[in-house]
Each structure stands twice: as structure tokens, then as C-alpha cells.
């Protein structure tokens, strides 16, 4: 048919043509009628010098996933946490494709609807531990997996691993309309529950969770705070990226948080006379017995470089980002920094002792903080800056271009946040009493 031939081979119809200097042979259809239609379409595209229907490099799902993750590791330099989430989510698709025939396991042949049905049939351990009771994937988990697969197929289209006239098959699922019927409810404290929690918490847990409640920080941010990040006299705390120490903020953006007087008193007691090191230390940690005890950021960086160089010499090559991050975690541990999981454990122990079954995650403090700011009618831009959320792109809703042109002064942010926190005075009085004991 013009410059294109179609023929039967091994029970399927194939086409053959030359695209410039490149020979193209593809299996295209189970019937001669469909093969003839595709051959006619490709011939028309060749005559008009348009990209042909089959002008792409097909890949299996496993190879596509490998290249996608390599792109984020080597080109995009995405955070290790983002890479870990992409790796875990797309593993579901690779495992599913491994059970298909070789032809059906090609990325451009995969059927997203069938994959969704597969996800709905799975039972998983919620935290990945083999001894945890298994349950079906929640709607939110299914949607996240599909969102990651959609990103991977967007990469495939850009790299010409999908037919040029085919859209992203995962984009057709309309994930924004997927109902989240079994989503785990978010627990938001009220003033009475907050006070009850703080009264039930021991001194270590109280300091950690009072700080989370009155700043809206993420637990990982709190775990990586150093004494040099806080100015207690001025009443400000600075959340900073620490790339030299293998850690960065989720959004990659530094921010400053105003401190209410009661939290300043709590932090003074937590820090004591220590001149440097993490603000919040693990239980029963002795800075004097550790090589990184009471070290400032410069000293911690030097220790990390020394350990990383020793490991690189031992391995006979440069460390990967993941290996360097492991060394960095060891430095933070030796410096006494808490593990965010310790904060979660203390949270669960306290809520269970109270009989507060609905509260299972320290992230409730961040939700509560944001809700309190809403109750106090704090300006949306100040809320966004304080919580460290990524601003919307111009014209994308929320504040849009207005947010680009509006700049919140520190004194305005401080006034508004402290005004909101004063709406719940009971826990603040409890903090004052507790900080002054002893």
C-alpha cells in the first residue's frame, strides 16, 4: 500500500516501511482489515512528512520504570524521599506487567483500566511490615499510585516511547474525579482535647508536641532543627534546608516562624545551657559520650565529610546519594537528633492513654494549627508562608498572580500568628506552668 507493506506472520499482521534511513517492522493488528487501515494511515503520514503512527521506541514497563527513576535521580535530582515514593508506587505497575504476556507487558500496550482493577484486588500491609494485618489499598493510595504512573507515562511520551498520536493513557482515567470513599479521617484537636493531651504527655513528649502544635512544623523539620536556628530573644525560629547534612525541607524552601512567649519558655528549658546541636534530643541521650555531641552545623558537616570520605575509600568509588544520605543519618543520630518515628510513638502512647482512638499521627498538629489560623481569619498568604506550602502558579487559583506581587512583612506574620494562637489560652497557661517547674 504505497510505501508500506503489511503481511501475516505467526498469526498476527505486521507492517514494514522505511522512515528515512530507518527500517520499521511492527506487529500491528490481529486482522488483515485493521492492518490495512494502519498501513494506509502510516503511508499518508510518510507522504506528508508527518511523524508516523509507529515512530517511537517501544519499551517494556520494567525498562520504562528504570529509565524514569534514573531520570529523576540523574537529571531532575529529585529528593531521595520523592524517589522512594516513585519507586514504591511504580513497583505495583512493574509487578502487574510481569504477569502479562511479553506483548501485553510493553508500555504502549498496557491497559490502565485493567491495572486499576488489579490494584483494587490487592491486600497490602499498611506500613510494609510482614507481620502487620493486611487490608485492601485505600482509595487515596490507589490514586497516588496512578498519579505516579501518569507521571511515568508523561516521561515516556516526551522520550518517544509511546506512539506519537497516542495520549497518556493514565491521563484518561480522570484521577481528579476519583472518589475517596474510604480515606482515613484526619483528626483535628479542639482546645479541650489539646489541653488533655499536654497534661497526659511526659516532659519529653510535651516539649516535642507543644512545639509542633504551636508552629505547624512537619515532624521531619523539627527533628533537624539546630540550636543556631532559633532566636529566643527575638522570638523567631528558622526552618532551613541542610543539603550539606543530607536533609532538605519537603518543598525545598526555607521559612521563618514566629514563636509565642509560652513556646519560647518551653524551648529555653529544652535547650538549657547547650551552645549547639539539635534542639530536640533523643530520650536518654548524653552529648558528652558522643563524637558529635553539642556540635554546630560546621562541625557536623566536617564529621560527615570525614565519614563519607572513609566509606568512599573503602568502597573504591564515590558514594551514591543514597549511601551519602545513610552516612548523614548516622551523623544526625550521633548528634542526638530525634527520629520522627519517636515523635509518632510518643504521640500514639499519649493518645491511647487518653482513650483518643481517632488521633494516630502527629500530622494532626499541623492540621490543627492550619485550622486554628482559619478560625482566626488569618490572611491566606500568611498561612501559606507559615506552613511552608508551595505557592500556586500565577492564574492557577488560590492567590494566583496576587500572591506573586504580595509580600508579607515579618511583623505582620508575627502579629497574625500569635493572635491566632491566643484563641486557645488553656494550653498556653499549662505550658507556662510546666516550663517554670523546677
Automatic annotation (TrEMBL):
Family of the protein in this entry: Belongs to the 'phage' integrase family.
Signal sequence coordinates: none
Classification via PROSITE patterns: TYR_RECOMBINASE
Classification via InterPro entries: DNA_brk_join_enz, Integrase-like_cat_sf, Integrase_catalytic, Tyrosine_recombinase_XerCD
PANTHER family referenced in this protein's UniProt entry, alphabetically: INTEGRASE_RECOMBINASE PROTEIN MJ0367-RELATED, PHAGE INTEGRASE-RELATED
Keywords of this entry: DNA recombination, DNA-binding
Tyr recombinase domain residues: 183-418
Superkingdom as given in the UniProt entry: Bacteria
Name of the featured protein: Tyrosine-type recombinase/integrase
